[in-house]
Design goal:
47% of the residues lie in helices and 16% in strands. By secondary structure, it is of the alpha+beta class.
Length: 319
């Protein structure tokens, strides 16, 4: 490595993790976010001789490059919703229907833990699945304005520089984005949430009931208006009783013998579920939970090979 390369790495490497979180908020995909951060650093390296420290900080410079990368990517890719933001609720005992959409993906906490363990810059509450899903209903520039201004704390003039537009345009995009999130009832501050330990405790109790195939035990941990959705299936439904009906069907169809492995994504607790298959257990789903003071209010269930790979999950477990 040359001295120039060492100097470049020293300049830009501290921002890698927060740029990953930024690209994830913009694209809604952990896989895409990692690719776009790599593209950002490649472009930064190629243009390093043109960087002027008198005009902008390294952080602003990198965000300008990352934003251009994200906006270009979004021109060719559709939004990534969750089923509850796309279609009407379904019968919990109805046939499962696969949707051919690029779905919102969870972001493993492990990708962020090393770079910003306290979450001071990244803002873990603004990575919640509900917030990430709401961003998907905004235009690309509205997403950028909202994240840059409200999440990352850039000024209006800095955001305009990063987005390559005017302060007036940034403020207009920000106003529309805030209104859209307010309509969706989505908060990004995390106020009123149980502590991380309390959330994990709720999900640990859920895991115990799940491994015992105890439907009534599961229901006791849910809020009355709980939602379950399960991309790539279009099916989603709400209500404790509907949830119980579906879980009864799951244990009846797939068996009561499961093994679970705790995970965390988007600052939320979850687990990978392995169902009995032959002499061992096969990976079936990854489930991420929203927990309120009154219990589990949402279970987002993912069944996608790309999602499994992002979490480094083994395809099977031994007996």
């Amino acid at each position: 490595m040359t001295a120039g390369e060492e100097g470049f790495d020293h300049l830009v490497e501290p921002f890698r993790t927060e740029l990953l979180a930024y690209c994830y908020r913009m694209l809604g995909s952990a896989h895409d976010a990692e690719d776009l951060v790599q593209d950002t650093y490649l472009r930064a390296w190629r243009s390093r001789e043109r960087y002027d420290a008198a005009r902008s900080s390294p952080r602003t410079w990198l965000y300008r490059i990352a934003t251009n990368v994200c906006l270009t990517a979004l021109e060719a890719r559709g939004r990534r919703p969750l089923p509850s933001g796309l279609v009407a609720a379904a019968d919990p005992l109805g046939p499962l229907v696969r949707g051919e959409h690029p779905w919102l993906q969870p972001l493993p906490d492990s990708l962020l833990d090393g770079g910003d363990p306290a979450g001071r810059v990244i803002g873990r509450s603004s990575l919640r699945l509900a917030f990430a899903a709401a961003l998907q209903h905004l235009s690309a520039r509205q997403r950028g304005a909202l994240v840059l201004r409200d999440v990352l704390g850039f000024s209006a003039s800095e955001s305009a520089d990063i987005l390559g537009t005017t302060v007036v345009a940034v403020n207009s995009s920000l106003q529309r984005a805030r209104a859209r999130l307010k309509e969706a009832g989505v908060r990004q501050d995390g106020l009123g949430e149980p502590s991380a330990a309390e959330q994990r405790a709720w999900v640990d109790r859920y895991m115990e009931a799940f491994e015992q195939a105890d439907v009534e035990g599961l229901k006791r941990l849910l809020t009355e208006d709980v939602v379950m959705e399960m991309p790539p299936m279009l099916n989603w439904f709400s209500g404790r009783d509907n949830y119980g009906l579906f879980m009864g069907w799951v244990f009846g169809q797939l068996g009561p013998d499961w093994r679970l492995r705790a995970v965390a994504a988007n600052g939320q607790p979850g687990f990978a579920a392995y169902r009995r298959f032959g002499g061992g257990y096969r990976l079936h789903t990854l489930q991420i939970f929203t927990v309120t003071a009154g219990g589990i209010s949402r279970n987002s269930v993912f069944q996608d090979a790309e999602v499994f790979a992002a979490f480094g999950l083994p395809a099977g477990l031994d007996e």
